[in-house]
Structure formats: structure tokens, C-alpha cells
Amino acid sequence: MKKSNFSFSHASKTRGTRKRLFAATVLVLLILFADLLSGGAIRAMVRGAYVRVWSAGSGVVSGIFESGFFSTRRALERENGSLRERLSELETKSASFSVLRQENDSLRSLLKVAERAPGITASIVSSVRSSPYGTFLIGAGSEDGVAPGSLVLAADSAGDGFVLGVVQEADARTALVKELFGPGISTEASVRGASVVVEGQGGGNARAEAPRNLPVVAGDPVTAPSLGGYPIGVVGAVKTEASSAESDVYIGLPVSLAGLSFVYVVAQY
Amino acid sequence: MSLLNTKTRVVLATLAVLSAVFLSPWLTLILMGLLAFGFRAWEVLLIGLSVDLLWLPAGDLLDPLPIGTLIALALVWGLEPLRSQYLMSQ
């Protein structure tokens, strides 16, 4: 009798969880189709909320890590009470200074890029490694003159501009950028005057096949004639097999995507 | 559902959401897989949808494919026979 009660209750629970799963499936499909039919209206709302959370969160996180709280805690414990208080105060000031200096360096390196083409500087307002589509968000949108097709550039330490990606969607205050080196994205490019198709691998890396007799070496810039002739990366390594007529060219960005705070957006090129 | 299972489910779902927003898509996929394998987790569908709403670029209808939602559907419904055999919790 007990066993029969147990199996009845088990079957009833299973039916309940399946019903919930089915309802969630219907809901998810409805939201997805509503978004597709509305031209991304739901996406825009979700991204707006995300940007607000990101902006608030990144300020707190960078404040905690830049303050050196974790790295200097052991040392501070050896100090006496009054010194500890003073040190903490100075560290907070130093952290603010370090954040400002970082921003200043980043903006200064973009200055040289800005001299070449008119555009706007925008901050990166999302993670650059979470998207399976090789996309990220910037804090400038149609109200700032950003439109689909605008180029998104970053500057390396020498101040040279590299195209990171192209704006895919522009909402009022944010825009979604698709990285040129995102997974599975192909871009026509030129290296040492030869046309190659660069295939993105994700993480700021890409691969291309070049004729074997082409004297490509590490450090050669790779440009994209269709993107205003801007460089899109630098050759990192070349691998040639004796049996193949083509060399594998591995290309990378000269800047670390994860370390970027600002980008330069060029609408006309 | 035991308390341990509920806690595991909540922790996995929270980690998956954080991963979808801040960390690697591969970690999100692994966490979604663990959730879907262990539970009849409707959260997996919402996490997959969130990935698409956040990161999917504009295009034609279903181009690019909303892979977050499709993977979530495949995990949730495709693992159902396996889950029925080895389910950690109902």
C-alpha cells in the first residue's frame, strides 16, 4: 500500500515538473519570436538593464581591486592602528588616481586615431568574453551618431588604430559591436599586398591562408581595404607545411580586449 | 526535493547566470548541461534565452541562429530520457 502511494506521488511530481518545463518552453519561444518580430525591442530593453547593472558593478569591483585591499592586507596587519587608517586613506586616493591614469592613458592613445577620422570615443559597457557570438556593448548609440556599419577602433601602445569590430545594432544610448575576430566571422583582408580571407577564432585571434611564396613574417600588419584600409591585426606566426601550397597565418590583435575600457567609433570611412 | 538538491540547483543556476553575463560562454554551456542533466530545470531555458537577448546580433529572421535558446531546448528536452533514468531529483 505504501509503495503504491509512493509511486503515485512520484508520478504526480514528475507530471508537475514536466508541466513547468513545458510552460517555460512555450514562454521562452513566445519571447524569442516576439523579439524577432519586433525587430529586437526586447533585446534593447534587456541590454539597457544590463548596461546599468554593469556600470554600477564595474565601479564597485574596480574600486575593490584597485584599492589593493586584498594584496596588501597581510602587510597592513603588521602596521599599528593609526598607520593602518592613514595607509587605507592614501590607498583609496591612490586607487582613484590609478583608475584615472588608466583612463587617461587609454584616451590619450585614442587621440592619434581621432586625428585620422572624425568619430566619437565610447566606453565598453559589457564583458568582451561572454558572448558566444563575438559581440560586446559600447556606451554610445544612435543619439551619439553611432549607426549600424560604424567601425569600432582601439589604439595600441603606439597610438595606431586597429579595427576591433563593426556596429551591428544601435539603440539610443548603447550599440552592439560584432568583433571582426569573433568565432566563425570571415573578413576580406590584405597582407603584404595579397588578398586573404581572415577567419575569426575568438579571443582576439584569427587565422588566414596565404600563398606559400608570399614573404609573410610575424609582425606584418593585416589591413582590410573594405574597412577604410585600417589595420585589423598583426601577424603573430606563420606555419608552412612542405606538402601544402599555402601557409597558415595566425593573426592577433596588438591590444588586449579584456584590458580595454574605451574605443573610438568612426561612422564615415 | 531534498534541501541539498535545491541548494545545488540554485548554486548552479546562479553561476550559470553570472557566467552568461560576465564569464566564458563555455562555462555557461557546462553549467547549463549540469543543470539540465541533474534536474528538470526550466531555468536552463531562461538562461539560454538571456544569452540570446544579450548577445545575439541583429540579422534576418533566424540568421544568425539563436544558439543559446536552441542549445537550452536541446539540453532540456534532449536529455529527458537520460534524466528519467538517472535523475538526481524530480
Mean pLDDT of chain B: 83
Which structural class is indicated by helix and strand composition of chain B?
A: mainly alpha
Please give the share of residues in helix of chain A.
40-55%
CATH architecture name of the domain at 186-252 in chain A: Beta Barrel
Number of strands of chain A: 12
Main β-sheet of chain B: number of strands, strand sense, barrel status? none
* CATH fold-level topology of the domain at 186-252 in chain A: Thrombin, subunit H
CATH class of the domain at 186-252 in chain A: Mainly Beta
The counted number of beta strands of chain B is 0
Query: Mean pLDDT of chain A, as a whole number?
Result: 79
What does this structure look like?
The complex is a heterodimer of chains A (269) and B (90). Chain A has 269 residues and is an alpha+beta fold. Chain A has helices at 2-37, 41-66, 69-78, 81-116, and strands spanning 120-123, 135-138, 151-155, 161-170, 175-179, 186-191, 194-202, 205-211, 221-224, 230-240, 246-252, 262-266. In chain A, a hairpin with a 2-residue loop joins strand 7 and strand 8. The longest helix of chain A is centred in the first third of the chain and has 36 residues, at 2-37. Chain B has 90 residues and is an all-alpha fold. Chain B has one domain (3-86). Helix content of chain B is 73%, strand content 0%. Chain B is globular. In chain B, 42% of the residues are buried. The chains are: A alpha+beta (269), B mainly alpha (90). At the A-B interface, helix 1 and helix 2 of A face helix 1, helix 3 and helix 4 of B.
